[in-house]
Amino acid sequence: MANDIDNLKRDIRRWTLLLGVVQITVGCAVGFIPPSAVEWFRGIVMAHIEFTANGVLMVVLGFLVTEMHLSPTALRVWFATLQVGTWTNGASGLAGAFLGSSSTLLPTLNEKFPPPHGADSAVVTNLLILCGVTVMVALLLTVFGLLRSKASVEGATT
């Protein structure tokens, strides 16, 4: 049984690290999209920043997988929510760039860089909400798994 969870952790770690580096690469590639190719270039800037920053987050969390004490189901939920959350963050910027619209969830961005088609895109807003919820689930599972890991180590040494 311990071998099964170790194999699952190894596989999830590998995929998390790989997809984190892929996401960083996507973020860098998005930075090459010229302003003339989109309706709202600030969305490209947002996507570039979010994909790269979230890819780094994913790589860092990938190194913690072996330290977390979670059930196989919780590990799978952790992986899925981390993927959905980090990818939808950059995707919201891309959607905004090509739609020329933003979200009311980004008031400062909209004030400084008004999108040509307004700030009420349901697509951008829903991607941001999905991002926020899933990233928080992944982060809370990370904290929980790390706290349980510490507790299980302390319990084994006493």
Please tag this protein with its features.
5 helices, about 160 residues, elongated, mainly alpha
Characterise this structure.
The protein is mainly alpha-helical. It has one domain (2-149). Helix content is 78%, strand content 0%. It has 5 helices and no strands. The protein has helices spanning 2-30, 41-64, 72-99, 107-112, 122-157. Helix 1 (2-30) runs antiparallel to helix 2. The chain is elongated. The mean pLDDT is 95.
Structural class: mainly alpha
Q: Biggest β-sheet: count, sense, barrel?
A: none
The helix-strand sequence is HHHHH
Percent of residues in helices comes to over 70%
Q: Which band does the percent of strand residues land in?
A: under 5%
Topology readout:
Layout: H1 2-30, H2 41-64, H3 72-99, H4 107-112, H5 122-157
A few lines on this structure:
Helices cover 78% and strands 0% of the residues. With 158 residues, it is mainly α.
